[in-house]
Design brief:
single chain
Length: 251
């Protein structure tokens, strides 16, 4: 089976300076893969390359290949809009639109041509349930999304991304500013979501990686040091640098 995401000798340089080099990594369908590592290790750069958000950084150059569903995302003729629909992203800081909760979610589907109110209602309810937010907001769908708490806003952003039916969900430190209860709700949502899509989770929280992911990759100074089943990597890492990081000796 073709991996949903596959990097082969993938590298990134910014203004001539290497940020990532020689990354070989497969992300399998229906799994949660966490990427851990200290600041500056290239985790977020790798994540942003998957859906070409790296294009927004002037001077970015790539080498090797990075494919989503078997197609090199940097090949000429790639439909970047379609790519970002298939590989949706949730950022560290919640960024709800200055619209109602309902319109935050319906906005994307409307752009794709969906106009049926019944269909939009179904998408809104389904995605809010998927992000474990429906019961908290079902009676105030037409109030502003910016009035929600930080944790609720992040789950709203998750719902908004899910509304476009991505194949891959890219999460860049989605719980970094959240309280433990909100974090637990997002982690709960991810366990259900992996039944229908693939999740790539960048996190600085090694405990979250240990709790939430099926496999974990450790990045350090632009290199992928190792990847493996999460339980195995955390208990029997093959590389001393991995052991030093997860045991708190640096990072």
């Amino acid at each position: 089976m073709i991996p949903i995401v596959e990097a082969t000798g993938f590298g990134v340089s910014l203004a001539g300076s290497s940020v990532l080099r020689g990354v070989h990594l497969q992300v399998h369908r229906g799994e949660i893969l966490s990427i851990i590592g200290p600041a500056g290790s290239g985790k977020t750069t790798f994540l942003r390359c998957i859906n070409r958000l790296s294009d927004l950084v002037p001077g970015t150059q790539v080498s090797g290949t990075l494919a989503v569903e078997g197609r090199d995302v940097f090949s000429p003729g790639t439909d970047v809009v379609d790519l970002r629909r298939r590989a949706g992203m949730v950022f560290a800081v919640p960024n709800p639109l200055p619209r109602s909760i309902y319109e935050n979610i319906a906005f994307g589907p409307k752009l794709t041509g969906i106009r049926s109110r019944d269909r939009l209602d179904e998408i809104v309810e389904r995605t809010l349930r998927a992000s474990v937010l429906w019961e908290e907001v079902k009676d105030r769908l037409h109030t502003s999304g910016t009035k929600l708490s930080g944790g609720q806003q992040q789950r709203l952003c998750l719902s908004r991304t899910l509304a476009l039916d991505p194949k891959v969900l890219l999460l860049d430190e989605p719980c970094s500013g959240l309280d433990p209860i909100s974090t637990a709700k997002i982690e709960e949502a991810l366990q259900d979501l992996k039944k229908t899509l693939t999740v790539v989770l960048v996190t600085n929280n090694v405990k979250q990686a240990a709790r939430a992911s099926d496999r974990t990759a450790f990045f350090l100074m632009g290199e992928m040091v190792e990847v493996g089943e999460t339980g195995e990597l955390f208990t029997h890492p093959r590389d001393k640098r991995t052991n030093d990081y997860i045991s708190g000796r640096f990072g």
